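Duplicate of #3305? Posting structure anyway:
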């Protein structure tokens, strides 16, 4: 199957700038993880994902766990669908402001020690490498995959809500956007 479901993680126990740099899910996030698993399991057998892939970060792994358990599969970890890398010289408390500035611009204009336009392609390759999978990832990585699939340059192509499901197909080796997931009704920034 060439369909790929990319899911933003559930609501984390803490957000940007918190003391825990790898938070798990809070109670709402855990319920969201169960609900998105039920949603994907309700798809027809032909459309249902058969693999579960996750960013290395805890909030994504915990969101992926209910689906993996229901499917009887392990969670495959792929760092390419992980969180956007922060510049090395940036202190943790500076990350929120850096992200806000990044969201307002284009991939090639993000300041840091990485080519973020190239990072977009790395994310897209990570997603494309998992046909037939549910890929659990992050707000910025979802935007990167959408940008790669559509040729967009804006960092914030859309605002995926927690456990929002974005659908891609692989067609002749290209990642094609089928449908963006549900957007957040409030600002994520």
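Output from current build:
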């Amino acid at each position: 199957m060439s369909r790929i479901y990319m899911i933003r993680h559930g609501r984390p126990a803490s957000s940007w700038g918190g003391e825990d740099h790898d938070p798990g899910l809070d109670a709402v996030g855990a319920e969201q993880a169960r609900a998105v698993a039920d949603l994907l399991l309700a798809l027809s057998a032909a459309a249902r994902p058969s693999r579960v892939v996750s960013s290395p970060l805890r909030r994504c792994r915990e969101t992926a766990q209910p689906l993996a358990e229901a499917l009887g599969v392990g969670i495959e970890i792929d760092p390419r669908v992980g969180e956007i890398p922060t510049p090395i010289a940036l202190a943790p408390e500076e990350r929120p402001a850096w992200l806000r500035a990044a969201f307002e611009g284009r991939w090639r204009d993000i300041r840091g020690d990485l080519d973020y336009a190239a990072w977009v392609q790395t994310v897209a390759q990570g997603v494309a490498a998992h046909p037939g999978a549910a890929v659990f990832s992050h707000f910025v990585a979802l935007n990167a995959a959408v940008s790669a699939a559509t040729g967009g340059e804006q960092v914030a192509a859309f605002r995926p809500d927690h456990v929002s499901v974005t659908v891609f197909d692989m067609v002749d080796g290209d990642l094609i956007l089928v449908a963006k997931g549900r957007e957040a009704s409030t600002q994520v920034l």
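Confirmed duplicate; merging threads. The first strand starts at residue 3 and ends at 8. Helices lie at 27-41, 58-71, 95-103, 116-128, 139-150.
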